[in-house]
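Q: Can I see a sequence and its folded structure?
A: Here is a first one.
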Amino acid sequence: MSGEHAAFDETIHAPVRLRISGMLRGAEKVDFAVLRDTLGVSDASLSKHLKTLANAGYITTTKARSASRSDARRLTWVSQTAAGRAAFDAHVAELRRITGDAGDRTGE
């Protein structure tokens, strides 16, 4: 952990939000439908969790026209903010600390 303060984050820790944060951690942006389908949740449930993360400043959403669709529907893209990445990384570090896993164990 490079200078971040490990901290248990109740906002991120909820199972669906933890999975969302993990999925977004390595991506520039992820389509709402991909998140929904991968997590196996409803649109309403995903929207609720995204709103919680957005209110915490951990994600942003943008809408864009789909080049592959002929209708006017727009895609919703979800991106993790720098604050969201830092909070997720700190939360994971705290989980490792709590479980005694420094993340560098080999052969155990």
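Q: Show me another, different protein.
A: A second, unrelated one:
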Amino acid sequence: MHIAAPESRPEPPAAAGIAPAAVPSRPLVVDLDGSLIRTDLLHETANALLVARPFAFLRALLRAGGSRARLKAELGRAATLDPAALPYNQELLSWLIEQRRAGRRLVLATASDRVPAEQIAAHLGLFEQVLASDGVENLRGRAKRDALVARYGERGFDYVGDSVHDLEVWASAHTAHPANASAAVLRAMPQGTALGRAFPVDRQSPLVVWAQALRLYQWAKNLLLLVPLAAAHRLLVPGAALAALIGFLCFGLCASSVYLLNDLVDVQDDRRHRSKCRRPFASGRLTLVRGWLVMPLPLSLGLAAAFTLLPWQFGIMLLVYYCMTLAYSLRLKRMMMVDVITLALLYTVRVVAGGLATATPVSFWLLTFALFIFTSLALIKRYTELKEARSQGRKETLAGRGYDPSDLEMVASLGAAAGYLSVMVLALYIQDPASGQLYRHPAWLWPACPLLLYWVSRAWMLAYRGRMTDDPILYALRDRASLLTGALFLVVFALAR
């Protein structure tokens, strides 16, 4: 067990304006994992090291030799965490600031290793002492209770905790303050221990949380698999439509596996983002361990269905999509412009896969059009992120990206140019003799050009005004003007046919 020496700390700035209140003279002991933070530092350090240095992670496992305390120490010393980005229990943290301001002694007692625990304590500036695991003793349950009783005596401290391992500590505490405790833990609360302030956390349905983690709403992007059928006028062919539906499900399952992996890899970066911090892993609503355990399942189901029910070429293309997405998540998204081109190719791969699933040839014109329009949309994503960073006065490179806020104007120029090139490709296709084989009146396709020109220009204007989300495709699926433009687009092609 490690005990950090007391040190004087400045008054926490977040406590300003809170009036002092009468507090007990007993020290207030606070648990870390699951209580003060909505995650587990063992999982956090393991995840951070696995993502950044996989071989170092394996060495830590081997050196631990089966000892949980030793494993925590190895991971805690090798991994790099940002204490400011962790998902804190804000209601509990505010109360602790109030207690500290009123003069109460606060002690952080955790089963986590001392290195990350002391980093968190230093960041918060609230705790006089830190008790933590030290590589030999795992300070959890009875070991934590014995350490606290030895220092403060039976019933000589109040304790904030959350799990079944804290029940033994509460049995020797004067007052129990449950934080994020389940109903089962509350029912098992030891008799004779006073119940103090509780800090419940809204618990969503597991189905809802997993649906958010799997990003089922993102499956709408896989409707791109229908584009070859629509372009070839084969949407109503029963066998082809069924194959496209199966392909849609396979890509959805594969994409959900990738989204889980991406969120696990990017969890620290997501916590610094204004909206991504609410994702299940970043917010602590799902544990990182569950994410790693579940991640392979949708991928396995998707690949099994692809190679069993559809042509093998489709299965190969699905594997290509997964490998590209994996490379994007682990490395390519941090490389300037490579990330954008990769995103555009990932959308284009969906179109190619739709053709392979339904035995529908994909024309040169369709591939070229897809590449330019999706490059433009990918650049909108980056433009939106850069614009937000500039509005916040930031000048450093975006976390997890290869762009600086100073790149904003260049990104806008490249994105608008790519969008306008897609309009040119469409215009050239209308003039190509191949269009006469599919459309009785190819000249009637011309109104599609100003419609597309309007939509691309409007998307960039909305991004310039700060009204575009960081996913323009999903925005378009909810935007009335975009839906109306799409409907008119279809009408034009129907009339030309």
